[in-house]
Amino acid sequence: MTGSMPAELLTLAQLLLNGLALGAAYALVALGFVLVLNATGAVNFAQGDMVMLGGYAAVALGRVLPVSGLMLLPLVMGAMAGFGLLFSVLAWRPFRHRPPIFGLLATVALGLTLQEAMNALEGAAPQAGPALLGVGEIRLGPLGLSRASLGILFACLVLGLAQGWLLTRTQFGRRLRASAQDPVTARALGIPVDRLIAASFMLATALAGAVGLLLSGPYFVTPTSGNDLILRAYIAATIGGWGSLRGAVAGAMLIALFESVVAGYASSVVATAALYGAVLLLLMLRPAGLFPAPLGRRA
Predict the structure, then answer these.
(1) Total count of domains within the chain
(2) Cβ atoms 47, 32 nearer than 8 A
(3) Averaged pLDDT, 264-289
(4) Which end of the chain is more exposed for a tag (fewer CB within 10 A), N or C?
(5) In terms of Cα–Cα distance, which of 164, 42, 175, 54 is closest to 106?
(6) Which of 105, 56, 101 lies closest to 83, judged by CA?
(7) pLDDT at 280 > cutoff 70
(8) Do the domain assignments include residue 275?
């Protein structure tokens, strides 16, 4: 016994608490993934590589600016938003009138190009970015949470709420959702659909950059560190309901909590295998996901 809580229950509670921070990071990646999916109808398989690039941007800025990760966060997000605009010009605009597979392959190609470029520039060795809220652990009664995990939770909550407000409470968000739901009608009403799609790439890439900074401290960054993240984002979007933002968040949290608990009692290899099996079972029972978007409508 630990205090009034049985040891087994305490262990489970600690594993779930540890999984919350990773789930919040997964959720931000999935939100950016679904945002571009809704805007273009195409899958952006380079979203994980945007996270990787954001991590290296944090490492580079940390070398020249001896400040906390919290101070660097807006700089990284701004720089990545600019890169997102360039990315939309290269990966979406030339293929916007072609079948979605062209855009998908373009994002894969650009993502692999980024991996090879960072491998040539920085090498394959893991690198650590600046800490967001310092180091150490905060005790919550019998449970412990690292400052890094607390920073990830706080930052992801703020950014997720800010995105929700932007998409639902502003003219920009209403126009963006209108463009995603019916681009032909939106163009007829004078809405600049192409510019709004470019803005969705910028927003999605800025979110990815934030995740890159948040994870670069406790989990390090390598040229291939985005591969697992895009896979989790894809699974989250699938089990949450293809095109559903709230479904993507719910799916991301479920994935992280599931992995944390299974890895805590078994191993990370078993957790990954069990995750794929659980996803297959869930899709057999609910092929449309947990929160499917209504037909003809996304978000």
Answers:
(1) 1
(2) yes
(3) 89
(4) N
(5) 42
(6) 56
(7) yes
(8) no
- Is residue 149, in this structure, part of any structural domain at all? yes
The token pair at 218 is 């406790």
- Do you know the residue count of the chain? 299
List of long-range contacts for 233-238, beta carbons under 8 Å, 24+ apart: 233/26, 233/29, 233/30, 233/32, 233/33, 233/47, 233/48, 234/33, 234/43, 234/45, 235/275, 235/279, 236/26, 236/27, 236/30, 236/33, 237/30, 237/33, 237/34, 237/37, 238/279, 238/283, 238/289
pLDDT in tens, 113-164: 999 999 999 999 999 999 887 777 788 778 888 888 888 888 888 998 898 8
pTM surpassing 0.70?
yes
Rounded Cα gap, residues 3 and 212, in angstroms:
38
Percent of the chain with pLDDT over 70: 96
Tokens read off for 80: 């990545």
Residue 283 forms part of a structural domain: no
Domain of residue 62 covers 9-121+141-222
* 144 and 21 Cβ atoms separated by less than 8 Å: no
How far from each other are the two terminal CA atoms of the chain, in whole angstroms?
A: 46
Question: Comparing C-alpha atoms, which of 182, 39, 47 is closest to residue 100?
Answer: 39
Instruction: Let me know: does 204 contact 1? Beta carbons within 8 Å.
Output: no
Mention every residue, 6+ apart, whose C-beta is less than 8 A from residue 251. 30, 235, 236, 237, 238, 239, 240, 289, 290
Task: Say if 51 falls within a structural domain.
Answer: yes
SS3 143: strand
Q: What is the pLDDT of residue 215?
A: 92
Q: How far apart are CA 255 and CA 295, in angstroms?
A: 25
Residue 290: count other Cβ atoms within 10 Å of its Cβ: 16
3-state DSSP assignment of residue 177: helix
- Residue where the block lists tokens 């941007």: 57
